[in-house]
Amino acid sequence: MRVLHIAYQQLRRYGKTRVSWAQKLTHGLIKNDHFVQVFSDRDIAAFEAPLGLRDLGVGKANKRLLETVEAFDPDLVIAGHCDIIKNETLNQIRQIKPGVIIVHCNNDPLFVPENIEKIKHRTQVVDAIFVSTGRRELTIFEGLESRIYHMPNPVDPAVESLDNSRKTDLPIDLLFCSNSNEHTKRLEMVRELKNALADEMVFKTFGSFGDPPVWGRDYDRTLTQTKMGLNLNRQEGHYWYSSARMAQLAGNGILQFTHCGPKFDELLPPETVVYFNDGDDLLANIREFQHDDEKRQHWAAAARSFFHAEINNRLYAQYILEASLQIPFSHDYVWARDIRLDGSMI
């Protein structure tokens, strides 16, 4: 199948990139033998704009997308986080290519109010939307023009290639990487942990408390040294919502601690992820696993095995394509057992 994937490809970061769910989706589609053409809206806008000023290239980027559709002739268009691309342009794609399926994938949290409005805006012109929050919380989008589905954050074996569950000589005991302080108070808990654990373990907090963030290869090298990580969302409690950090830690065999609020215990097997209720509970759990390395290895290995087997990017891409085109599901997707093919809840 011919798939046009509109998503930011970070071309102008020249290798110093963030781990990208959009790239994992592209990789998964290609591994499933689909012909994929990517269109990086932000990069195209900057490349086409006078003096490289991206805002001046918005109109040209939309025009170039239509030219791409003409030339590539896609069967499926996946529009990710591509605010530069207008709804009018997506409607024009249907005029160029009658019968094409257009869907929107959104990996941002619903506790950011403008994101809800962005999703509602896209539902006016797409056939389906996929959101990284669990399906039971997506009822706010029911009754709009699009079908609605949950999608997970997958691992990519080419990206999450480590297995730290097999290692014992790792210099970083605990890791938390962050680059956003909006809509969150999570650093209050992290600060308390740093104070409490200062004399007990090596706890790195890149991107917080004056420590610079790490990207690209620097981030990869940090993960190679890490035993355990904090998977702290900016806000907790949204059903099956987590940042991509969950897959990055689990996929690399790094034991992770995550809040019990999102109820991942209803998705993930036992003895894979360590859940906590509050700061005191988290502190006790960290100390327990720090002093029981065999237990740390066992849980981290189980999480890694499950994610690579059941929440990998090939299954992720296959699910999005099948749901988009309403092809009967070819796999028992663990994250979609409460979803019918038409997106409604069972």
Describe the model.
Helix content is 36%, strand content 14%. It is an alpha/beta fold and 346 residues long. It folds into 2 domains: 2-154 and 312-336, Rossmann fold, CATH 3.40.50; 164-310, Glycogen Phosphorylase B (Rossmann fold, 3-Layer(aba) Sandwich). The protein has a 6-stranded parallel sheet, with helices on both faces. 42% of the residues are buried.
Instruction: Write the CATH fold name of the largest domain.
Output: Rossmann fold
Report the CATH architecture of the largest domain: 3-Layer(aba) Sandwich
Mean pLDDT over all positions:
95
CATH superfamily of the largest domain: Glycogen Phosphorylase B
SS content category: alpha/beta
The fraction of residues in strands falls at: 5-15%
Rg over alpha carbons: 21 Å
Please write the CATH class name of the largest domain. Alpha Beta
Helix-strand sequence: EHEHHEHEHEEEHEHEHEEHHH
Portion of residues in helices? Answer: 25-40%
Measured distance between first and last alpha carbons: 29 Å
Largest sheet: 6 strands, parallel
- Strand tally, please? 11
